[in-house]
Write a structure and sequence with these properties.
4-stranded parallel β-sheet, globular
Length: 163
């Protein structure tokens, strides 16, 4: 049975595709590529059909990550097939939980940085869109730091299903 994770930010061209590509790489490195499916979406449809922001692509490539991406808008009907919906900031968390058709679906929504013990109380990944490339680099650092804890949680869930 496939375990499905969807990362969600505002437009699905900066933070969530970065998280998707990084986490997919972590899943593959862990040998879970055949069991864990990773994708992303935006809370809005402004960029639907577009590729990732060129700055996202550049920062990912500079750090050894590769992957194609096409932006799309998150749909409430997806909750039934997803195991985790990972919000990149508290605004996305609230928006996604309000879209959830059931309380069980709302509980699937988590903040990415909640998986980073060093994050402290600031669990939002800042939107780098209106800034320079340094914001994208900071975003990548936050995504990578949280991916370790997220991978451990997903591995535990996947192994729990197999037991």
């Amino acid at each position: 049975m496939t375990y499905r994770v969807c990362f969600v930010c505002t437009g699905n061209i900066c933070r969530s595709p970065m998280a998707e590509i990084v986490f997919r790489a972590r899943v593959a490195e862990a040998g879970l590529g055949g069991v864990v499916q990773v994708d992303s979406a935006g809370t809005g449809g402004w960029h639907e059909g577009d590729g990732a922001d060129p700055r996202t692509v550049a920062v990912l490539e500079e750090n050894g990550y590769a992957g194609d991406h096409t932006a799309r808008q998150f749909q409430p009907s997806w909750f039934s097939r997803l195991d985790l919906v990972i919000a990149l900031d508290s605004g996305h968390l609230g928006a996604l939980r309000s879209l959830a058709p059931t309380e069980q679906d709302a509980q699937k929504v988590r903040l990415l940085r909640a998986y980073d013990p060093a994050a402290g109380d600031d669990l939002d990944v800042p939107d780098p869109y209106y800034g320079g490339v340094d914001g994208f680099e900071e975003c990548l650092e936050m995504v990578e730091a949280a991916s370790t804890g997220l991978l451990a949680a997903v591995r535990k869930d996947v192994e729990g299903r197999a037991a």
